[in-house]
Amino acid sequence: MIAGHAHPRVTQALIEMTRKGTSFGAPTPLEVELAGMVRKAFPSMELVRMVNSGTEAAMSAIRLARGYTKRDKIIKFEGCYHGHADSLLVKAGSGATTLGIPDSPGVPADLAKHTITIPFNNTDAVEEVMQDCGDDIACIIVEPVPGNMGVVPPENGFLMFLRDISQQFGTLLIFDEVMSGFRVAYGGAEELYGVIPDITCLGKIIGGGLPVGTYGGKREIMEKIAPLGPVYQAGTLSGNPLAMAAGIETLKILSQPGTYDRLNKLSGQLSEGFKDAAKKAGVSTYNTRVGSMLCTFFTEGPVTDYASAKKSDTAAFAKFFITMLEEGIYLAPSQFEAVFLSTAHNEEHIEKTIKAAYRAFRKL
Asked: What are the backbone angles phi and psi of residue 216, rounded to the nearest 5°?
């Protein structure tokens, strides 16, 4: 795509390309290579479309679901964050939870009314909504492993329940794996739990941290996107070569044998270390972990959804965070963010962090 004034010879070349039926938006070799690696990791993503962020991926996936089903309403879950698109800033997680502003000004009421929010892990609530208006629901979008209200694992059977009930009503199931993709397993929650969504969203992890995202799914659904179909979505920087090249190298590293065994071992040690350190210091915590995602909630009871996560003692977390920072350990600065391990971490890092945590817990 060329912006501004093109040289006359360039203009003529574009005219010739048009006459020959050549697409200006044809994927580059780097884009094709990265897309192939994503498809291999996530078999449900038969066709993929590169975008520039996780927000754009989720927004585009919902538009596609609405266009495919010809329905307007969507279901999301309290505390799950899918980016800052208008339809999704209704009881969202991430910064909205941290700052105490779950519903953002600037979101039109006429748009928000199409978003139905349900407590995570609550099959009865999903059943009730679907029985009431399932024929009007375009999609159910969910973080299969939420990481924006802290890490809240799905209860046994919950994701499969969503798969079954969405199929029953002709509703699409969207897994937002911007966090969990390539993190809880190479093939994300889809691989870990064996539940196949209709559409999957991925984020910056597929670009080594650069601005990139992708969404993909069943061929018959993805073929509704322009230019193959009527659902419009485009982006000047989508599939840019810098992000594609970084993503290819990142996935090559992550796909090496033993990578996730090592990540799971280290994250398990860290999670248990946090748990034991808090117990020895006499501090009540509830610890969760899925793969290399983990969280320590400053609460006495279990955390299974947004409401129980919000019971956490955020003042205690703030003191813990500051003390850990003084110890040389930089955690995510919110009770409602996840701890991620990377391939750069080693046993020494884990041991140092656990010892620092014990000292920090004692100061509480």
From this structure: -165, 165
